[in-house]
UniProtKB/TrEMBL annotation:
Transmembrane annotation, as ranges: 6-25
Keywords on record: Heme, Iron, Membrane, Metal-binding, Monooxygenase, Oxidoreductase, Transmembrane, Transmembrane helix
Cofactor(s), names only, from the UniProt record: heme
Name of the protein described by the UniProt record: Cytochrome P450 94B3-like
Binding site for heme: C437
InterPro entries according to UniProt: Cyt_P450, Cyt_P450_CS, Cyt_P450_E_grp-I, Cyt_P450_sf
GO molecular function, one term: heme binding
Domain of life: Eukaryota
Protein family: Belongs to the cytochrome P450 family.
PROSITE patterns xrefs: CYTOCHROME_P450
Species per Swiss-Prot/TrEMBL record: Cocos nucifera
Biological-process GO terms, alphabetical: lipid metabolic process
Protein backbone atom coordinates (compact mmCIF):
# COMPACT_ATOMS: atom_id res chain seq x y z
CA UNK A 1 0.00 0.00 0.00
CA UNK A 2 2.81 2.41 0.91
CA UNK A 3 4.59 1.69 -2.35
CA UNK A 4 1.44 2.39 -4.37
CA UNK A 5 0.25 5.43 -2.42
CA UNK A 6 3.43 7.11 -1.27
CA UNK A 7 4.37 7.40 2.43
CA UNK A 8 2.56 10.65 3.36
CA UNK A 9 -0.78 9.75 1.74
CA UNK A 10 -0.61 6.31 3.35
CA UNK A 11 -0.08 7.79 6.82
CA UNK A 12 -2.96 10.23 6.30
CA UNK A 13 -5.17 7.41 5.14
CA UNK A 14 -4.38 5.21 8.16
CA UNK A 15 -4.74 8.10 10.62
CA UNK A 16 -8.16 9.10 9.31
CA UNK A 17 -9.24 5.47 9.17
CA UNK A 18 -8.59 4.79 12.85
CA UNK A 19 -9.87 8.18 13.97
CA UNK A 20 -13.17 7.61 12.17
CA UNK A 21 -13.73 4.15 13.58
CA UNK A 22 -12.69 5.19 17.09
CA UNK A 23 -15.38 7.90 17.03
CA UNK A 24 -17.84 5.48 15.50
CA UNK A 25 -17.19 2.96 18.26
CA UNK A 26 -17.60 5.53 21.06
CA UNK A 27 -20.93 6.79 19.73
CA UNK A 28 -22.55 3.63 18.44
CA UNK A 29 -21.23 0.59 20.27
CA UNK A 30 -22.09 -0.14 23.89
CA UNK A 31 -21.98 -3.04 26.29
CA UNK A 32 -25.76 -3.13 26.61
CA UNK A 33 -27.55 -6.23 25.46
CA UNK A 34 -28.72 -5.70 21.88
CA UNK A 35 -32.22 -6.17 20.55
CA UNK A 36 -32.38 -9.00 17.95
CA UNK A 37 -33.36 -6.35 15.39
CA UNK A 38 -30.42 -4.02 16.15
CA UNK A 39 -26.97 -4.82 14.83
CA UNK A 40 -23.66 -3.29 15.87
CA UNK A 41 -21.00 -1.77 13.68
CA UNK A 42 -18.59 -4.63 14.39
CA UNK A 43 -21.14 -7.17 13.16
CA UNK A 44 -21.44 -5.16 9.97
CA UNK A 45 -17.68 -5.27 9.46
CA UNK A 46 -17.55 -9.00 10.24
CA UNK A 47 -20.21 -9.76 7.59
CA UNK A 48 -19.26 -7.21 4.94
CA UNK A 49 -18.20 -9.97 2.50
CA UNK A 50 -21.65 -11.60 2.72
CA UNK A 51 -23.85 -8.57 3.22
CA UNK A 52 -26.77 -9.93 1.17
CA UNK A 53 -26.89 -13.34 2.88
CA UNK A 54 -26.36 -11.78 6.32
CA UNK A 55 -29.09 -9.14 6.05
CA UNK A 56 -31.42 -11.74 4.55
CA UNK A 57 -30.94 -14.03 7.54
CA UNK A 58 -31.56 -11.11 9.91
CA UNK A 59 -34.71 -9.69 8.32
CA UNK A 60 -36.24 -13.16 8.00
CA UNK A 61 -35.59 -13.77 11.72
CA UNK A 62 -36.96 -10.37 12.75
CA UNK A 63 -40.64 -10.29 13.88
CA UNK A 64 -41.17 -7.17 11.75
CA UNK A 65 -38.82 -8.21 8.92
CA UNK A 66 -36.84 -5.07 9.66
CA UNK A 67 -33.46 -4.56 11.30
CA UNK A 68 -31.57 -1.46 12.44
CA UNK A 69 -27.82 -1.01 12.06
CA UNK A 70 -25.67 2.08 12.64
CA UNK A 71 -27.18 4.82 10.43
CA UNK A 72 -29.01 2.13 8.42
CA UNK A 73 -32.36 0.37 8.32
CA UNK A 74 -32.86 -2.80 6.25
CA UNK A 75 -36.39 -4.03 5.63
CA UNK A 76 -38.36 -6.61 3.68
CA UNK A 77 -41.70 -5.59 5.16
CA UNK A 78 -44.15 -4.87 2.29
CA UNK A 79 -45.91 -2.11 4.24
CA UNK A 80 -42.59 -0.41 4.90
CA UNK A 81 -41.62 -0.70 1.25
CA UNK A 82 -44.90 0.85 0.13
CA UNK A 83 -44.30 3.68 2.61
CA UNK A 84 -40.77 4.27 1.27
CA UNK A 85 -41.54 3.95 -2.43
CA UNK A 86 -45.00 5.51 -2.56
CA UNK A 87 -46.71 6.91 0.55
CA UNK A 88 -43.77 9.03 1.70
CA UNK A 89 -41.84 8.90 -1.57
CA UNK A 90 -40.45 12.44 -1.37
CA UNK A 91 -38.81 11.69 1.98
CA UNK A 92 -36.76 8.86 0.52
CA UNK A 93 -34.71 10.06 -2.45
CA UNK A 94 -31.66 8.19 -3.65
CA UNK A 95 -29.72 10.96 -1.95
CA UNK A 96 -26.55 12.96 -2.45
CA UNK A 97 -24.30 10.13 -1.31
CA UNK A 98 -25.72 7.78 -3.97
CA UNK A 99 -25.27 10.51 -6.58
CA UNK A 100 -21.67 11.05 -5.43
CA UNK A 101 -20.85 7.35 -5.59
CA UNK A 102 -22.03 7.12 -9.21
CA UNK A 103 -21.13 10.69 -10.24
CA UNK A 104 -18.27 9.88 -12.62
CA UNK A 105 -20.12 7.02 -14.30
CA UNK A 106 -23.75 8.16 -14.51
CA UNK A 107 -23.34 11.94 -14.33
CA UNK A 108 -26.73 13.65 -14.16
CA UNK A 109 -28.62 10.85 -15.91
CA UNK A 110 -32.03 9.63 -14.80
CA UNK A 111 -30.70 6.84 -12.56
CA UNK A 112 -28.50 9.26 -10.67
CA UNK A 113 -30.99 12.10 -10.27
CA UNK A 114 -33.62 13.24 -7.78
CA UNK A 115 -36.13 16.09 -7.69
CA UNK A 116 -36.91 18.24 -10.71
CA UNK A 117 -34.03 16.92 -12.81
CA UNK A 118 -35.34 13.39 -12.35
CA UNK A 119 -38.94 14.43 -13.11
CA UNK A 120 -37.97 16.00 -16.44
CA UNK A 121 -36.00 12.97 -17.57
CA UNK A 122 -38.64 10.57 -16.30
CA UNK A 123 -41.33 12.35 -18.31
CA UNK A 124 -39.31 12.20 -21.52
CA UNK A 125 -38.27 8.58 -21.04
CA UNK A 126 -41.80 7.53 -20.04
CA UNK A 127 -43.17 8.74 -23.36
CA UNK A 128 -40.63 6.60 -25.22
CA UNK A 129 -41.06 3.46 -23.15
CA UNK A 130 -44.83 3.49 -23.43
CA UNK A 131 -44.81 3.72 -27.20
CA UNK A 132 -45.56 0.61 -29.22
CA UNK A 133 -42.78 1.67 -31.56
CA UNK A 134 -40.10 1.05 -28.92
CA UNK A 135 -41.51 -2.36 -28.02
CA UNK A 136 -41.50 -3.33 -31.70
CA UNK A 137 -37.92 -2.10 -32.13
CA UNK A 138 -36.65 -4.04 -29.13
CA UNK A 139 -38.46 -7.18 -30.27
CA UNK A 140 -36.93 -6.88 -33.74
CA UNK A 141 -33.41 -6.25 -32.47
CA UNK A 142 -33.61 -9.07 -29.94
CA UNK A 143 -34.89 -11.46 -32.63
CA UNK A 144 -32.08 -10.53 -34.99
CA UNK A 145 -29.40 -10.80 -32.32
CA UNK A 146 -30.61 -14.27 -31.34
CA UNK A 147 -31.09 -15.56 -34.90
CA UNK A 148 -27.99 -14.04 -36.52
CA UNK A 149 -25.45 -14.41 -33.71
CA UNK A 150 -26.49 -16.51 -30.74
CA UNK A 151 -28.09 -19.45 -32.57
CA UNK A 152 -25.04 -20.03 -34.83
CA UNK A 153 -22.74 -20.03 -31.77
CA UNK A 154 -24.93 -22.53 -29.93
CA UNK A 155 -25.32 -24.69 -33.05
CA UNK A 156 -21.56 -24.86 -33.47
CA UNK A 157 -21.13 -25.82 -29.80
CA UNK A 158 -23.74 -28.58 -30.18
CA UNK A 159 -21.97 -29.93 -33.26
CA UNK A 160 -18.40 -29.74 -31.97
CA UNK A 161 -18.90 -30.58 -28.30
CA UNK A 162 -17.52 -27.24 -27.11
CA UNK A 163 -18.52 -25.95 -23.68
CA UNK A 164 -19.80 -22.37 -23.42
CA UNK A 165 -20.33 -19.86 -20.64
CA UNK A 166 -23.97 -18.99 -21.23
CA UNK A 167 -23.85 -15.96 -18.93
CA UNK A 168 -21.03 -14.44 -21.00
CA UNK A 169 -22.97 -14.95 -24.23
CA UNK A 170 -26.12 -13.41 -22.75
CA UNK A 171 -24.15 -10.39 -21.50
CA UNK A 172 -22.78 -9.80 -24.97
CA UNK A 173 -26.22 -10.14 -26.53
CA UNK A 174 -27.80 -7.73 -24.04
CA UNK A 175 -25.02 -5.19 -24.60
CA UNK A 176 -25.63 -5.23 -28.36
CA UNK A 177 -29.42 -4.88 -27.99
CA UNK A 178 -29.19 -2.01 -25.49
CA UNK A 179 -26.74 -0.03 -27.59
CA UNK A 180 -28.74 -0.52 -30.77
CA UNK A 181 -31.93 0.56 -29.02
CA UNK A 182 -30.54 3.71 -27.44
CA UNK A 183 -28.20 4.84 -30.24
CA UNK A 184 -28.80 2.73 -33.39
CA UNK A 185 -25.13 1.71 -33.18
CA UNK A 186 -24.35 -2.01 -33.30
CA UNK A 187 -21.22 -2.81 -31.26
CA UNK A 188 -21.43 -6.46 -32.37
CA UNK A 189 -19.84 -7.73 -29.17
CA UNK A 190 -21.56 -11.10 -29.49
CA UNK A 191 -20.28 -11.51 -33.01
CA UNK A 192 -16.66 -10.57 -32.46
CA UNK A 193 -14.26 -8.85 -30.09
CA UNK A 194 -13.84 -5.39 -31.61
CA UNK A 195 -10.88 -3.60 -30.11
CA UNK A 196 -12.75 -0.42 -29.15
CA UNK A 197 -15.65 -2.39 -27.64
CA UNK A 198 -13.29 -4.58 -25.59
CA UNK A 199 -11.50 -1.47 -24.29
CA UNK A 200 -14.83 0.03 -23.29
CA UNK A 201 -15.95 -3.15 -21.51
CA UNK A 202 -12.71 -3.41 -19.56
CA UNK A 203 -12.89 0.25 -18.57
CA UNK A 204 -16.55 -0.02 -17.55
CA UNK A 205 -15.94 -3.13 -15.44
CA UNK A 206 -12.98 -1.45 -13.73
CA UNK A 207 -15.09 1.61 -12.90
CA UNK A 208 -17.94 -0.55 -11.58
CA UNK A 209 -15.48 -2.37 -9.35
CA UNK A 210 -14.48 0.93 -7.73
CA UNK A 211 -18.11 2.04 -7.43
CA UNK A 212 -18.93 -1.18 -5.57
CA UNK A 213 -16.04 -0.52 -3.20
CA UNK A 214 -17.43 2.93 -2.40
CA UNK A 215 -20.63 1.39 -1.04
CA UNK A 216 -18.61 -0.53 1.53
CA UNK A 217 -16.42 2.36 2.68
CA UNK A 218 -17.07 5.41 4.87
CA UNK A 219 -17.60 8.30 2.47
CA UNK A 220 -14.62 10.31 3.65
CA UNK A 221 -12.20 7.43 2.95
CA UNK A 222 -12.95 7.08 -0.73
CA UNK A 223 -13.28 10.85 -1.14
CA UNK A 224 -9.85 11.30 0.42
CA UNK A 225 -8.44 8.73 -1.99
CA UNK A 226 -10.13 10.51 -4.88
CA UNK A 227 -8.69 13.85 -3.76
CA UNK A 228 -5.20 12.38 -3.57
CA UNK A 229 -5.62 10.28 -6.71
CA UNK A 230 -4.52 7.08 -4.97
CA UNK A 231 -5.63 3.46 -4.66
CA UNK A 232 -8.84 2.37 -6.33
CA UNK A 233 -9.86 6.00 -6.88
CA UNK A 234 -6.72 6.54 -8.91
CA UNK A 235 -7.70 3.59 -11.11
CA UNK A 236 -11.21 4.98 -11.55
CA UNK A 237 -9.78 8.30 -12.71
CA UNK A 238 -7.73 6.45 -15.33
CA UNK A 239 -10.51 4.17 -16.56
CA UNK A 240 -13.50 6.53 -16.65
CA UNK A 241 -11.99 8.30 -19.62
CA UNK A 242 -12.31 5.12 -21.68
CA UNK A 243 -16.01 4.84 -20.80
CA UNK A 244 -16.69 8.48 -21.66
CA UNK A 245 -14.66 8.37 -24.86
CA UNK A 246 -16.62 5.42 -26.26
CA UNK A 247 -20.02 6.94 -25.42
CA UNK A 248 -19.02 10.40 -26.66
CA UNK A 249 -17.86 8.97 -29.99
CA UNK A 250 -21.38 7.57 -30.49
CA UNK A 251 -22.86 11.00 -29.66
CA UNK A 252 -20.61 12.68 -32.24
CA UNK A 253 -21.52 10.10 -34.87
CA UNK A 254 -25.23 10.64 -34.33
CA UNK A 255 -24.94 14.42 -34.27
CA UNK A 256 -23.09 14.23 -37.57
CA UNK A 257 -26.20 12.93 -39.31
CA UNK A 258 -28.57 15.14 -41.23
CA UNK A 259 -31.84 16.17 -39.50
CA UNK A 260 -33.93 14.09 -41.91
CA UNK A 261 -31.81 11.03 -41.09
CA UNK A 262 -32.31 11.61 -37.38
CA UNK A 263 -36.05 12.04 -37.84
CA UNK A 264 -36.26 8.72 -39.67
CA UNK A 265 -34.26 6.94 -36.95
CA UNK A 266 -36.02 5.09 -34.15
CA UNK A 267 -33.39 5.31 -31.43
CA UNK A 268 -33.76 7.38 -28.25
CA UNK A 269 -30.53 9.32 -28.76
CA UNK A 270 -31.63 10.72 -32.14
CA UNK A 271 -34.80 12.14 -30.64
CA UNK A 272 -32.84 13.78 -27.84
CA UNK A 273 -30.49 15.34 -30.39
CA UNK A 274 -33.42 16.67 -32.44
CA UNK A 275 -34.82 18.26 -29.28
CA UNK A 276 -31.75 20.51 -29.31
CA UNK A 277 -31.71 21.24 -25.56
CA UNK A 278 -29.11 18.69 -24.45
CA UNK A 279 -25.35 19.12 -24.14
CA UNK A 280 -22.96 16.51 -25.50
CA UNK A 281 -22.15 15.48 -21.94
CA UNK A 282 -25.81 14.94 -21.12
CA UNK A 283 -26.28 12.85 -24.28
CA UNK A 284 -23.25 10.83 -23.24
CA UNK A 285 -24.83 10.30 -19.81
CA UNK A 286 -28.04 9.07 -21.47
CA UNK A 287 -26.13 6.31 -23.26
CA UNK A 288 -24.32 5.20 -20.11
CA UNK A 289 -27.47 5.34 -17.94
CA UNK A 290 -29.46 3.20 -20.40
CA UNK A 291 -26.60 0.74 -20.63
CA UNK A 292 -26.26 0.61 -16.84
CA UNK A 293 -29.99 -0.06 -16.42
CA UNK A 294 -30.39 -2.73 -19.07
CA UNK A 295 -27.09 -4.42 -19.66
CA UNK A 296 -26.37 -6.58 -16.60
CA UNK A 297 -29.83 -7.17 -15.16
CA UNK A 298 -31.39 -9.00 -18.11
CA UNK A 299 -28.53 -11.47 -18.79
CA UNK A 300 -28.21 -12.16 -15.06
CA UNK A 301 -31.92 -12.96 -14.77
CA UNK A 302 -31.81 -15.15 -17.90
CA UNK A 303 -28.79 -17.07 -16.63
CA UNK A 304 -30.78 -18.02 -13.54
CA UNK A 305 -33.79 -18.82 -15.77
CA UNK A 306 -31.91 -21.24 -18.03
CA UNK A 307 -30.32 -22.94 -15.03
CA UNK A 308 -33.67 -23.40 -13.28
CA UNK A 309 -35.42 -24.65 -16.42
CA UNK A 310 -32.58 -26.96 -17.44
CA UNK A 311 -32.69 -28.69 -14.06
CA UNK A 312 -36.49 -29.15 -14.24
CA UNK A 313 -37.48 -31.14 -17.38
CA UNK A 314 -41.20 -30.90 -16.59
CA UNK A 315 -41.02 -27.07 -16.65
CA UNK A 316 -39.06 -27.09 -19.90
CA UNK A 317 -41.57 -29.43 -21.52
CA UNK A 318 -44.50 -27.26 -20.49
CA UNK A 319 -42.80 -24.16 -21.95
CA UNK A 320 -42.27 -26.03 -25.23
CA UNK A 321 -45.93 -27.10 -25.30
CA UNK A 322 -47.07 -23.50 -24.75
CA UNK A 323 -44.84 -22.14 -27.52
CA UNK A 324 -46.11 -24.81 -29.90
CA UNK A 325 -49.73 -24.11 -28.95
CA UNK A 326 -49.37 -20.34 -29.47
CA UNK A 327 -47.64 -20.84 -32.84
CA UNK A 328 -50.36 -23.19 -34.08
CA UNK A 329 -53.09 -20.82 -32.92
CA UNK A 330 -51.54 -17.99 -34.95
CA UNK A 331 -50.52 -20.09 -37.93
CA UNK A 332 -46.86 -19.24 -37.37
CA UNK A 333 -45.02 -22.60 -37.19
CA UNK A 334 -41.43 -21.32 -37.39
CA UNK A 335 -41.37 -17.56 -38.07
CA UNK A 336 -40.40 -14.70 -35.78
CA UNK A 337 -42.60 -14.46 -32.70
CA UNK A 338 -44.85 -11.40 -32.58
CA UNK A 339 -45.73 -9.19 -29.62
CA UNK A 340 -49.23 -10.69 -29.53
CA UNK A 341 -47.84 -14.22 -29.49
CA UNK A 342 -45.42 -13.41 -26.69
CA UNK A 343 -48.21 -11.85 -24.61
CA UNK A 344 -50.18 -15.10 -24.82
CA UNK A 345 -47.33 -17.11 -23.27
CA UNK A 346 -48.66 -16.97 -19.73
CA UNK A 347 -46.73 -19.96 -18.43
CA UNK A 348 -43.43 -18.62 -19.75
CA UNK A 349 -44.25 -15.28 -18.11
CA UNK A 350 -44.87 -17.13 -14.85
CA UNK A 351 -41.55 -19.02 -15.07
CA UNK A 352 -39.67 -15.76 -15.66
CA UNK A 353 -41.44 -14.07 -12.75
CA UNK A 354 -40.74 -17.01 -10.46
CA UNK A 355 -37.06 -16.79 -11.46
CA UNK A 356 -37.03 -13.09 -10.56
CA UNK A 357 -38.77 -13.81 -7.25
CA UNK A 358 -36.04 -16.20 -6.16
CA UNK A 359 -33.09 -14.43 -7.81
CA UNK A 360 -33.85 -10.70 -8.20
CA UNK A 361 -30.86 -9.12 -10.03
CA UNK A 362 -30.99 -5.93 -7.95
CA UNK A 363 -31.44 -7.47 -4.50
CA UNK A 364 -30.59 -4.53 -2.23
CA UNK A 365 -32.01 -1.11 -3.09
CA UNK A 366 -30.80 1.90 -1.05
CA UNK A 367 -32.58 5.17 -0.31
CA UNK A 368 -31.71 8.10 1.97
CA UNK A 369 -34.09 9.49 4.62
CA UNK A 370 -34.53 13.25 4.17
CA UNK A 371 -36.36 13.93 7.47
CA UNK A 372 -37.02 11.92 10.65
CA UNK A 373 -39.72 9.33 10.00
CA UNK A 374 -41.50 6.32 11.47
CA UNK A 375 -42.08 3.27 9.28
CA UNK A 376 -45.45 1.47 9.47
CA UNK A 377 -43.95 -1.33 11.59
CA UNK A 378 -42.80 1.22 14.20
CA UNK A 379 -39.14 1.43 13.16
CA UNK A 380 -37.63 4.88 13.73
CA UNK A 381 -35.62 6.31 10.83
CA UNK A 382 -33.49 9.38 11.49
CA UNK A 383 -32.64 12.10 9.03
CA UNK A 384 -29.66 11.14 6.90
CA UNK A 385 -29.95 7.40 7.55
CA UNK A 386 -29.70 4.93 4.70
CA UNK A 387 -32.81 2.79 4.17
CA UNK A 388 -32.42 -0.42 2.18
CA UNK A 389 -35.09 -2.82 1.06
CA UNK A 390 -34.05 -6.43 0.52
CA UNK A 391 -36.05 -8.00 -2.32
CA UNK A 392 -34.02 -11.23 -2.17
CA UNK A 393 -35.27 -11.88 1.37
CA UNK A 394 -38.84 -11.14 0.30
CA UNK A 395 -38.80 -14.14 -2.01
CA UNK A 396 -38.27 -16.36 1.05
CA UNK A 397 -41.06 -14.94 3.23
CA UNK A 398 -43.88 -17.32 4.13
CA UNK A 399 -46.10 -14.36 4.97
CA UNK A 400 -46.06 -13.42 1.26
CA UNK A 401 -45.58 -16.69 -0.64
CA UNK A 402 -46.78 -19.38 1.78
CA UNK A 403 -45.05 -22.46 3.16
CA UNK A 404 -43.62 -23.35 -0.25
CA UNK A 405 -41.86 -20.01 -0.54
CA UNK A 406 -38.44 -21.64 -1.07
CA UNK A 407 -39.66 -23.86 -3.89
CA UNK A 408 -39.56 -23.02 -7.59
CA UNK A 409 -43.26 -23.04 -8.41
CA UNK A 410 -44.36 -21.04 -11.49
CA UNK A 411 -47.97 -22.07 -10.92
CA UNK A 412 -48.21 -19.60 -8.03
CA UNK A 413 -48.45 -16.85 -10.69
CA UNK A 414 -51.31 -18.45 -12.63
CA UNK A 415 -55.06 -18.31 -12.13
CA UNK A 416 -57.00 -20.67 -14.42
CA UNK A 417 -53.94 -20.75 -16.65
CA UNK A 418 -53.72 -16.96 -16.96
CA UNK A 419 -50.83 -14.96 -15.51
CA UNK A 420 -51.79 -12.74 -12.58
CA UNK A 421 -49.25 -10.15 -11.35
CA UNK A 422 -48.52 -9.75 -7.64
CA UNK A 423 -48.61 -6.63 -5.51
CA UNK A 424 -45.48 -4.64 -6.54
CA UNK A 425 -44.70 -3.90 -2.87
CA UNK A 426 -44.51 -7.66 -2.25
CA UNK A 427 -42.56 -8.21 -5.49
CA UNK A 428 -40.49 -5.03 -5.96
CA UNK A 429 -38.10 -6.53 -8.52
CA UNK A 430 -38.96 -3.69 -10.90
CA UNK A 431 -39.24 -1.28 -7.97
CA UNK A 432 -42.64 0.33 -7.32
CA UNK A 433 -44.34 3.69 -6.94
CA UNK A 434 -43.21 6.77 -8.91
CA UNK A 435 -39.81 5.21 -9.71
CA UNK A 436 -41.22 1.94 -11.07
CA UNK A 437 -38.86 0.64 -13.75
CA UNK A 438 -39.89 2.07 -17.10
CA UNK A 439 -38.33 -0.89 -18.88
CA UNK A 440 -40.44 -3.56 -17.16
CA UNK A 441 -42.51 -4.46 -20.21
CA UNK A 442 -39.61 -4.27 -22.64
CA UNK A 443 -37.56 -6.44 -20.26
CA UNK A 444 -40.23 -9.14 -20.37
CA UNK A 445 -40.33 -8.86 -24.17
CA UNK A 446 -36.58 -9.43 -24.42
CA UNK A 447 -36.61 -12.26 -21.89
CA UNK A 448 -39.56 -14.00 -23.57
CA UNK A 449 -38.20 -13.83 -27.10
CA UNK A 450 -34.80 -15.03 -25.90
CA UNK A 451 -36.25 -17.85 -23.80
CA UNK A 452 -38.67 -19.06 -26.48
CA UNK A 453 -36.20 -18.81 -29.37
CA UNK A 454 -33.51 -20.73 -27.51
CA UNK A 455 -35.65 -23.38 -25.81
CA UNK A 456 -37.31 -24.23 -29.14
CA UNK A 457 -33.92 -25.05 -30.64
CA UNK A 458 -31.63 -26.17 -27.82
CA UNK A 459 -31.41 -27.96 -24.52
CA UNK A 460 -28.63 -27.35 -21.99
CA UNK A 461 -26.84 -29.64 -19.59
CA UNK A 462 -25.88 -27.62 -16.51
CA UNK A 463 -24.41 -28.20 -13.07
CA UNK A 464 -26.95 -29.41 -10.51
CA UNK A 465 -25.76 -26.87 -7.93
CA UNK A 466 -24.49 -23.32 -8.32
CA UNK A 467 -23.48 -20.51 -5.95
CA UNK A 468 -24.68 -16.94 -5.75
CA UNK A 469 -22.28 -14.01 -5.91
CA UNK A 470 -23.42 -10.55 -4.93
CA UNK A 471 -21.81 -7.19 -5.56
CA UNK A 472 -24.32 -4.76 -7.01
CA UNK A 473 -26.04 -7.57 -8.97
CA UNK A 474 -27.08 -11.05 -7.80
CA UNK A 475 -24.96 -13.10 -10.17
CA UNK A 476 -24.07 -16.76 -10.54
CA UNK A 477 -20.55 -17.37 -9.29
CA UNK A 478 -18.28 -18.43 -12.13
CA UNK A 479 -20.93 -17.91 -14.80
CA UNK A 480 -22.95 -20.81 -16.21
CA UNK A 481 -20.92 -23.38 -18.18
CA UNK A 482 -23.28 -25.35 -20.42
CA UNK A 483 -23.26 -28.35 -22.71
CA UNK A 484 -25.46 -27.73 -25.74
CA UNK A 485 -27.80 -30.19 -27.42
CA UNK A 486 -29.77 -29.33 -30.55
CA UNK A 487 -33.48 -30.18 -30.62
CA UNK A 488 -34.96 -32.06 -33.56
CA UNK A 489 -38.65 -31.49 -33.26
CA UNK A 490 -39.43 -32.83 -29.82
CA UNK A 491 -36.25 -34.91 -29.86
CA UNK A 492 -32.82 -33.78 -28.76
CA UNK A 493 -29.68 -34.72 -30.65
CA UNK A 494 -27.16 -36.87 -28.85
CA UNK A 495 -24.26 -34.40 -29.08
CA UNK A 496 -23.62 -34.10 -25.35
CA UNK A 497 -20.75 -32.42 -23.57
CA UNK A 498 -19.62 -32.96 -20.01
CA UNK A 499 -19.17 -29.88 -17.85
Amino acid sequence: MVDDFGLLPALLFITFFFFYYYCYFIHHCSCEKKSPTKMSFFEMVKNKERILEWTTELVLASPTNTITMPYTVVTSNPKNIEHILKTNFHNYPKGDDFAAIFSELLGHGIINSDGDRWKLQRKAASHEFHSKNLRTIILDKAHNEVADRLVPLLSKAAATGASLDLHDLLQRLAFDVVFQTVSDVDPAWLGCDKEDVVRFIHAYEAVMGVVNLRFNQPWFLWKLQRLLGIGSEGRLKEEIGGVHEFAMRIVKQRKGRKPEELRSSSDFLSRCILDGNSSDEFLRDIIINFMFAGWETMPTAMTWFFWLVSTRPEVEERILDEIDSVRRRHGNPDGKLTLDELREMDYLHAVLSETLRLYPPVSLCPRRCAEDDMLPDGTLVKKGWRVIYNSYAMGMMESIWGEECNEFKPERWLENGVFRPKNPYQFPVFHAGPRTCLGKETAYIQMKVLAASIIERFSFDVAARVEIEFFSILSMKGGLPVSVRRRRGKEVSKVAITI
